[in-house]
Structures are given as C-alpha cells and as structure tokens.
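Case study B.
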Amino acid sequence: MTQDLIPIYIYSRKYYVPEGSTIITALEYLGFKLKKGVGCKEGFCGACASLYRLKGDYKLKGGLGCQTVVQPEMQIVQIPFVPAPKAIYKIEELQPDSEIFVRYYPELYRCLSCNTCTKICPQELQVMDFVQAAVRGDFEQVANLSFDCIMCGLCSARCPAEITQFNVAMLARRIYGKYLMKKSTFLEQRLKEIESGKYEEGYRELMSLSQEELKNRYFQREIDFQIT
Amino acid sequence: MTRMPYYPGCTLKTKAQNYDLSTRAVFRELGVDLVELPRWNCCGAVFSLVTDDLLRQVAPITNLIRVQELQGTDSVDDPRLVVPCAMCFNVLKRANARMKDNPEDLKKINDFLYLESQPYRGEVQIIHTLELLKEISAKRIKEQVKFPLLGLKVSPYYGCNLLRPKDVAIDNPENPSILEGITEALGAKVVFNNRRLRCCGSYQTVSEKGLVADLVYDIIKGAARAGADLIITACPLCSFNLDWRQKEAMEAHSDHKLIPVIYYTELMALALGIGNGFGGEHFVDPQPLLQKFLEKEKGGI
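Model:
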C-alpha cells in the first residue's frame, strides 16, 4: 500500500510526510529525535504542545502534537516548555481567600479579558472565564472550568498580560479541594464495612463457586446502578 | 417583577459584597429582579485614555456582548444593563460611547473577538442603580419605607466616577441631587457637605496613603461641619478610602471626627425594613449608630 506524501514545514524547513500523520508521528517519520515535547501520545499529558498555521489562514493555532493531524503546507513548531513562575506554599497554611492570588500570582490582575488564552487552548477550555473567576475569588468556578487543563502552557505563552493561567488554576483547584469542596464520606464508610467483616461471607461464597456459576453471576449482575 | 441584566463587577464580589447584597435586596423590594450577567469579566477597572491601544477596550465590550446574549433569551424584561459600582459604570459607559462614536474601533474589536457568539452592535444601554432608583421615583420609595430615618443626618458623597466626564454623568455634574433625593425619601435629613464632589484619592490609596488621608480628612471635615452622623456613597473605592483612611487622618489630625461610611443601598435596606446585616468590613463601625436608630424606630428608646 502506498501512502500519499504531503508537504509540511517544520521550523520553516519543508518536508514530505505521509498524509494522515499527526505532528508527532510526522516528526518520528522524518527521524527527529524527540527528547522533549512528547509524552503519552494519547492527548492526556500536555507535553507535546505545538503552534501552527494553516495555508491561507492568518490564525495562529495551538494543538497537541499527538492529536493534531498535519495538513498540506502547514507550518509547525513545537513548544515543549513554557517558563512560568510557580508559587511555593504550604496548602495547610493558606485560606480560601482571593488574597491568595494577590500574594502568589499578582500578575493575574493584569488580565485584559482579550480571550487570547481561550483561542489557543488545545483543550478548548474557557480559559479567560476561569482567570476572571480567579480575579473575583470564585474558587469553585475556577476548579470546574479548569478541570481538564493539562498544563501544556500555550495560554501562558500567548498571554499579553503574562499570566500563568495553568498555575493559577492549579492553586485554585488545590484550595477548592482542600477547603471548599463537599467532602465525600463513601470511602470511609466502605472501609469501615470491610473492616467489620460485612463482605466476608459474600467473598467466601464467590470463592466456592465454579467457573460456570461465576460467569452466570457476572452476566446477571446489576449494572444499571446509580452513583449517588 | 421586572427582570434586568445586572453587572456586579469584581469588587462587589470580594471587598464590597455588602454593596452587592444590599443592592439586590433593595431592588427586589422595589420590584426589580437583577439578573447577573452570565460569564461577565472585569470591566477594565479604569477607563483607558490611550487612544491607540484598543486592547484595553476589549474587556468592557466583551461584557456588552454578554448583555446582548442575555437580551436574546427570555430571562430579562428590560434590556438595559444595571451597574451599581461607580467605577465599572464609568468604564462600561465610556467604552460604549467610544464604540458608538468610532465605528472603525468597533469593527476592529469585533474582528478580534471572533470567538464570540455575535459581534457587538453598539446598542446596549447602561444605567446606574441610582438612575434606576430615580426612575422608580422617590415617591414610590417613600411609600415603601417601614422605618423612616427621622433625625438621622446623612451626608451624600459623590466622588468623580458618577459625574465625570459629563457625557456619562448620571446627574448634573456640578450640582447633583440624586443621592439627596433618595435620602429625603427615606425620612432622613440631608446635610450639605461642600466637598461632596471632591476626589477621594482613588487608587493613590495603594502607594500614597498619606496623600489620600489628607483628602479624606478634608472631606470628612466638611461632613462633620455640616453635622453629619453618617456618609453615604455609591462607589466601593470612595467608600474604602473615606472609611479606612480615617485611621491615618485620625493619627495625623487630633481634631478629626470619625464618621461612619455606608452605601446608599444599605441605608435604604434599613429604612425599607429589609435588614441591617449585609456584612462589610469597616474602620469606623456604623452599627452602633444604625442599631440605635432601629431600636428607636421600633419603640425601644
């Protein structure tokens, strides 16, 4: 089977790579040694952030190298790392108060609401909305809106106010998780039940069953349960 | 209930929550349900006078697009945007005027905001809470007063943002009367401070405490001379400076008389019988005075 090759530009040099490649597989195909800027290759780790422009489109776009399929005449550069201030704090000593951002990330208040962060986010998060929520100390909203952030850093690289959105969000999620989120008691309850021997008999029964009976039980199990 | 779009702004969500809560409560009592704009962002904090840096106009305009989006649903009856914070009001209204006067600027901003659901059309009307109260009328407010604030001497303070520049002013910039009208409707006595339009020192309070304390000393002195028990404001920053810089004013001037500062909406809430518990941190605690009045009204004293 032959695959069509298409032209792309990497660091401004022209190469031909198989159609349908992702940025990462194209780099591998061309023999680039990837020591940085690649990770899980499944779109989860955020290590392979890349910037690109498509032919005939002025928009500078961002994407994960492992998830972005190359197109003819596409210009690509990898952004393996974005230098960013990272606050050092002891979470136990903090209070869920908007003053936290004033102390650790004062540049947050330089936000111009230009939405450039949202435009570039490969996770399609409402980045500016969570930055604005942080400005007014709404930890819950920051946590919810930034939950899928994989800290690729593109927002920070593009921000005209030089904010590090991903670190601000991380701080907010930690505060939210530690002090504000409703605590779940299910795990504690279940551990107590196990310790009290509630499931001993059930286990013994299962252990005594034949493979055939186990299969029956498996297929008849209740699967439409509700997590409450 | 008339439902109207409402922009609280960052300060009303943090340091001035008492202004936000009392505003909503008072308007609900007067038949207006303030619907908070979804996804609002910072107004821009200070109106940018830089004519060639359009990026600073993006923040206010994004908010006005949010108003359009809300107008497109059936969740508001009156389409005008209600803004209580004097600073936000000033920024939003001036940015809006700039867009109306400069269609090219508006086009550039709309091009920049290509992610938005719709371009800004330049038609949103912005109204300050005080203007809305004037519209509702002093007569109507008076009718709903449960505890007339008889004998309470109130000094209204305007500051700059509600009256300058005159194109966005909510009242006569040289001789406003909107706060006075409300104060009278509540049964209180208006006392005239001839420094009610002076600058409170604004953001200088961050780096030049002493300078702001001097301004505040003069302003409070004017109110004290007129015999004020209480000062009312419509601006979180004026309110902060007039209240907290009394600490430095007191330390620098032995004749400084401490006068509590609250929002006009808190005073209204008191008179309308909605409550007195909106929180808020104060240097000069208004509660002893307000409690005394409530007890008197309820026949305690």
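The longest strand of chain B covers residues 2-6. The remaining cases will be described in the next quarterly update.
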